Amino acid sequence: MAEEAARRAVAELPLLRTAAGPRDREGWAPRLKEEYRALIQYVENNKRADNDWFRLESNAEGTRWFGKCWYVHELLKYEFAIEFEIPVTYPSTAPEIAIPELDGKTAKMYRGGKICLSDHFKPLWARNVPKFGLAHLMALGLGPWLAVEIPDLVAKGIVQHKEK
Is there a catalytic annotation at residue 69? Predict the structure, then answer.
C-alpha cells in the first residue's frame, strides 16, 4: 500500500530535463529552476492529500539544502533536522540525506547521519538520470526510509517523542 502511494506521488511529479550539476555554470540555473518547480509541485500535492511532511530550503547557489522532516507514528509527531549537499557529479549521483540527530542509532545509516539508500533508491536513481531530482529523492528516498525506520526506532525505545 505504501509502495503504491509512493508510485502515485512520483507519477504526479514533473520529470526534469536539464542534465546539469553545480559545476556547469550555464546549465545549473535552469536545472535549479526545474528542481524548485518539482519540489513546489510535490509539496502542493502532499498538502492536498493531507500528507505534508517536510520543509526544505537551500543556500543561494542551490548546492546546500537543509530543513525539517517529520513522521507521525501512533498520533505522535517526530520531527528531525535534515541536510544534504548536491554532489559535484549531480545529477548522475544522488545526494546523500543526513539526519544528524539519528547518527549511530540505526544500522541503515552511515557516519554523519547519512541515511542508507544504496540498495533500493540508488539503482532507481541511476536508471532515471537526469529525469529524477530532489522531489524524487524526498518521495522515493527519505519518505520510505522514515516510514520503515522511525516506527522501528520508536518501538526499540531509541527515539522518543519530545514531550515524553
Answer: no
CA–CA gap between residue 23 and residue 26 (Å, rounded): 9
CA atoms within 13 A on the CB side of 40: 6
Q: Confirm if 63 and 22 have CB atoms less than 8 A apart.
A: yes
pLDDT digits (tens, 9 = 90+) for 32-77: 999 999 999 999 999 999 999 999 999 999 999 999 999 999 999 9
* Most distant CA pair in the chain, distance: 51
pTM: predicted TM-score of the whole model, two decimal places: 0.92
Residue 21 near residue 86 (C-beta atoms within 8 A): yes
Annotated catalytic residue within 116, 147, 154, 158: 116
Q: Say if residues 17 and 37 touch (Cβ distance below 8 Å).
A: no
Rounded to whole angstroms, the Cα distance separating 131 from 17 reads: 6
Name residues whose C-beta falls within 8 Å of residue 131's C-beta, 6 or more positions apart in sequence: 15, 16, 17
Strand pairing class (114-115; 76-85): unpaired
Q: Can you name the residues that pair with 69 across neighbouring β-strands?
A: 54, 80
| Cα first-last separation, the chain | 31
